[in-house]
Each structure stands twice: as structure tokens, then as C-alpha cells.
Amino acid sequence: MRTRGCLSIAVVLVMLAPASAPVSGQRGGGPPPEPTGPIPRTADGKPDLSGGFAGTGSGLTHSTILEEHGAGLGIRAGRSLIIDPPDGIIPYQPWALAERDRRRLDVNAYEDPVGHCEPYDIGRLHSFAQRIVYSGGNIIILAQQHTTRVVHMNRREHLPDSIRLWQGDSVGWWEGDTLVVETTNFNGKTRMALGGDFYSANATVVERFTMVAGNTINWTMTITDPYVFTRPWTMESSAPMTRGSDANRAQRLIDPEWEHDCHEGNIVLRRMKNLYEQAHGVSPPGEPIGPRPAVKP
Fold it and tell me: Exposure of 296 by Cβ count < 10 A (0-12 exposed, 13-18 middle, 19+ buried)?
């Protein structure tokens, strides 16, 4: 297996753990999930996905490194979340792999947008609790850092190419008991994990939420982006999404009384900026990755 870059960024990430650690290990405040049983359904016969679902991360594991990795420097060992290709390795273009590894260096940790209270990547959200609600025929996913994703079920066409969003434009449809969500129109600024994995503004992401039991969803995400990758690839969450096992934290995601404490007392961020400027002699860049398609007339 080829070397996939160093884990030196973990030295800095450990200092951020209280603010960004996944919810597993923090559970216990909510009621246990109901026994597994028949899939609940809405009036139209589709699976009822509503409710709070537990995060699927485990300490600083897959929120940091998506591929198989050993333990060390505050990171727990973890299997690869990549299920296609079978070797569990993200099929980066050579230039993109070099860029991913550059981002993983501790001196570049300041570039991670989540550390600046900017939005999470849609795949990165699956290490944390999420709450799914229905509104106006659409499906709404409420997640970490007061994120609100709208899955438009009433249209198939995406927004014009000139409109670019942190978490893209999502349209959805049902294939049996699977909710399929296709997302495009990214701004190219997010990261899939603290370890620097990324895709460009031109990516097409297809998520599949498959309800397999009364409180269990299997989730996968397939990314197609020829600019960054040599082929499409698919990842899964580190564990199935489980409804009801983290109800208290999931409820906070839609409660305005609970703020996301990101900026207050964030001394670590200033230190990371100082480290970056000492190493490079310049302020960190803020440009998105990858060319954007021409605007269609």
C-alpha cells in the first residue's frame, strides 16, 4: 500500500477535540433507541426518516482520516471508509494527492475552514448527530454547527452554474426504500475530513440513505470529479445511522437557544495562524479548489 501522507496535523487537531469531537462517547443523555422493527412509513408509503440520528464517528477517527490508519498522536485507529475501489484508497489524481498531503501538515492546519466556523462538508457531517424533518414536500437535514441542508424533492434540475454553495444544491428522489440525493453546485472550499481530503467545485455527489430497519439507515456517498480523481469512488459511514440513540443532542440542532460555541475563546486558532505565517511568511489563502464550469446561457 502506498504511503498516504503524514499524520502530523493531529498534533494540532488534538487541541481542537473538545469543540469538534464526534458525539459517540458523549452519549447517554437521551433515551435508548426503540427496538428494531418494521420500517415506519409516511402516508405515501415511503420510509419515514424523520427524527434524530446518532453520529457515526468514534473519537478522532474518521472525522480525521477516511482511509485505513493506525493510532497515534491523539487519533484512534480506524478501518477505511472507502468501499469502492476495493483497496480502500481514494483514487486521487497525482497533483490532488500531493495537495491533500500538503493540507495534512500541521503548519497548514489553519487552512481548514471548519476551524473558522465555516460550514462542514456534507460527508464530514456524518460523524455527528443529525436530525431529519419534512417541510413543504422536501426533506430537511439539520446538522452540526447549525447546518441546514434542503433536499429538494419537487424538482430534478439543479440551480444555474453561477450559483455556488458550501454544501451544494441537493435534489432527491426515491428508489424503493432508498432516498437518493444528488448534489452539485459546490463552491470548492470544504474539506471531507480534518486530514485534508477534498473534491472540487465541479464534483457530483450522490448519497444513498437506505432504511434497513425501524431505526437504522445505511448511508453511502459516491463522488464523481475527474479534475481531482481518476475514477468515481464511494465511501460509507463508519456505522449505520441510528435513530433515537442521541435524541438530546439531535434536538439541540433545531433549538435556537443552543449556540454553536466556535469563536469564543478560540485561542488555538490564533496559534495556528501564527504557525502558518511563520512557516510560509504569508497569510493563508482562501480560494476554492478547481475550475468552475462556464455559466450556461
Answer: exposed
Are 275 and 107 contacting, i.e. CB atoms less than 8 angstroms apart? Answer: yes
Preceding amide of 22 cis, omega within 30: no
Cell representation of residue 193? 475530513
What is the number of alpha carbons within 13 Å of residue 7 lying toward its C-beta? Answer: 19
- 56 closest CA partner among 235, 202, 190: 235
Q: How far apart are CA 95 and CA 283, in angstroms?
A: 23
What type of residue is 230?
A: T
Give residue 17's identity as a one-letter amino acid code: A
Q: How many CB atoms lie within 10 A of CB 173?
A: 12
Alpha helices in 46-123 (DSSP H): 94-104
Strands 147-152 and 169-175: parallel
| CA separation for the pair 49, 219 (Å, rounded) | 12
User: Which among 179, 122, 127, 173 is positioned nearest to 20, based on CA atoms?
Assistant: 127
Hey, where are the domains in the chain?
A: 10-261+268-280
pLDDT tens digits, 253-266? 556 566 666 666 67
Task: Grade residue 16 by pLDDT with cuts at 50, 70 and 90.
Answer: very low
Strand 204-213 relative to strand 233-236: parallel, antiparallel, unpaired? Answer: unpaired
What are residue 247's phi and psi, to 5 degrees? Answer: -65, -40
Q: Taking residues 211-222, report their average pLDDT.
A: 93
